[in-house]
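Journal club prep, notes for RB
We'll compare a predicted complex against what the paper describes. Inputs for the calcium ion case:
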Amino acid sequence: MTPSLEPTTTTPTPVVLDVDTGVDDALALMFAVRSPDVDVRAISCVAGNADVDQVVANTFAVLDALDAPAIPVGRGAERPLVEPARDARHIHGADAMGDQGLPDSSREPADGGAIDVMRRAILESPEPVTLVPLAPMTNVALLLRAYPEVRDNLAGIVLMGGAVDGGNATAVAEFNVWHDPEAAAIVLAAGVPVTMYGLDVFTQVVVEAKTYEVLRGDPDPAVALAGRLLAHSHDVIRADPRVGHGGLIGDAGAACVVARPDLVTVRRWPVHVELAPGRSRGQTVVDRRYVLGEDAVHGVESLGHLVDVAVEIDAARASDLFLTTICAGPGASQVDDTARAVQR
Ligand code: BDR
Ligand code: CA
């Protein structure tokens, strides 16, 4: 049975994805490439979960599994703006793809590198582009600093990063912001509308074991790969009681929000990235007050930049949208409504 997608009423949203592939970036790439609501114009790679060359190799491996058309992929920053790179291989595996020994790809990175790939994709688009950073925001900050004119053709930025409450890289900082806080601060200050898909919603969308086990056996290589990645994710986060029972779709949730913005409830709050050295570096300080505090009244601190912060997500619908979309590829997935029904 061919899975049916939610009806599409709009033309696909043109996007540029910035990734540090990465188990969950891989799931986001799968969703974005296969979604009829998303048009992936370019992909930029950055050091984060792994070094940038591994990120490029992983990105190509995912595009091969998807049998994706030629999408420009740019190799970007090797390290954050200020600090050294610090990978997350203890979470994502030595290859940052759950140690699956994926085959090498014959795809080649685009000439000119990530910043140029992003710049061209944005400026050459007849319609405004949505920028989707799913990684430390080094590339995006460099782009905005080097070519501020891209802002005029950006519909907005939907980023995975930060949190209202708590962290993962540190007690209070989420990995993508913590890895390059200066870059995140530049992005929030750029004057482009930002939607922040932070840990508060990131941790909510899972695929249950009984479903990802079905995916693993699928003849479509991309669907089978998604099953293995979700199993890896589940193994790593099983001990965290804040996370639902299953493999996290992670960054793919932010891509789902590009396709279906109504999946999340957002609140427009000032957000500040903490840059001071110490335990709070990289924290997104989200100001949820309704009444001005003494800091503002006495001009001690400026307010942060207004950001649409995702505070709730329809996790069941997001998970279903993710599964339906990745299973609707040309590879004739065997995953039908029965497999997805197990999930509900
Ligand atoms: C983010 O950091 C990475 O580990 C994931 O790919 C995701 O983008 C979560 O903090
Ligand atoms: Ca990522």
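Talking point for the session: Residues 211 and 247 are 10 Å apart (CA to CA).
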